[in-house]
Amino acid sequence: MTGTTVAPQAPPVDQIPAPATAADRRAARRLRRESERDTVPAGLKPSRAGRIARAALLTVAAVATVFPFYAMVVLSLKPSAAVEFPGSLLPWPLTGEAYDTVMGAQNVPRWLFNTLVYSVVSVVGVLLLASLAGYAFAKKRFPGRETMFWSFLSMVMVPYHVTMIPTFAMIAKLGGVDTYWGLIVPTLANAQAVFLMRQFIQGLPDELFEAARLDGCGEWQIFYRIVLPLLKPILATLGVFVFLWHWNDFLWPLIVGQSTDMRTLTVGIASLQQQNVPLNVVLSGSVIAFVPIFAAYLVGQRYFTEGVTASGIKG
Question: Residue 149: pLDDT above 80?
Fold first, then answer.
């Protein structure tokens, strides 16, 4: 009686021991790749030509995405001279005189401060109001709840520019022109944020809230101790989006901030272009405006990824 020879198979990924040395780590990676290969059907495995084409397409897309940022940084570090392509894109010679000019200007630090106030206060206000409204629409029962929610959500279909003139007229009558509250308050009612919060909270189990009420928690305690900690991923996601929107906002700050001291950074940089300021100075201002956005994304990157995934599943 002849025995049947069974081909050795790679162990499951979760059974591969933790590597201790560099050689063990290489062996573990190899076993992991073999295990992943075994789980993919043969008909779905990409050919060598397909992998090369995919790598080439991803490389072209990556270069096309990164090149504008590279050009912005390199040209901002160039001396004040005529820009010549492609010679001006070479990373030499470099100088920081444009950044000295921007940061030494009288109005740029003020514009930066205005933008920080506008963005940070708006993020806090939008997240607070959206989380409260989302909790009410998702877990509270009151007459007209659905009608109120869908009426509020219908604001998404109204173009932003349609409501801008009546909003400005109202703010002007209340004395909000050239003030921080006139800049911030009209942007706090965000229907998209309320919708995302409501969809996320709606997926939370009702038993969690019933158990909290049995333990004697009031509505504010439930919101502060249960809802807010569970909202961290979606709060980080919305926070990044709202911060990005307010930091790059141009039209509303242009209308409300009519004096030079109340301009935001985007409006101020645009005004520099009208004053025949050298290109390297304008681009250095753009780099300064870009850094806080990039830093905010790096800080909330983990929560941002979790929030996008969770909102996509629950939505």
Answer: yes
Question: pLDDT grade, residue 9 (50/70/90)?
Answer: low
* Cis-peptide, bond into residue 46, ω within 30° of zero: no
Residue 21 token pair:
């040395």
Q: What is the pLDDT of residues 171-187, one digit of tens each?
A: 999 999 999 999 999 99
How many other C-beta atoms can be found within 10 angstroms of the C-beta atom of residue 79? 11
Question: CA 67, CA 113: separation in Å to the nearest integer?
Answer: 29
Residue 129's pLDDT is what? 93
In order, the DSSP letters of 167-207 are HHHHHHHTT-TTSHHHHHGGGS--HHHHHHHHHHHHTS-HH
Q: Tell whether omega for the bond before 229 is within 30 degrees of 0, i.e. cis.
A: no
Q: What is the pLDDT of residue 115?
A: 93
Instruction: Return d(Cα 98, Cα 182) in angstroms, integer.
Output: 33
Which residue type sits at 45?
K
Nearest to residue 76, comparing CAs of 60, 61, 63, 89? 89
Q: Find the mean pLDDT for residues 253-259.
A: 90
How distant is the alpha carbon of residue 294 from its chain centre? 9
| Contact between residue 246 and residue 232 where contact means Cβ atoms under 8 Å apart | no
How much of the chain is in helix, strand and coil states, percent to nearest 5?
75, 0, 25
The answer to whether residues 70 and 290 touch, using CB atoms and an 8 Å cutoff, is: no
Give the integer Cα–Cα distance in Å for 228 and 73.
Answer: 39
Predicted confidence at residue 107, as pLDDT, reads 83
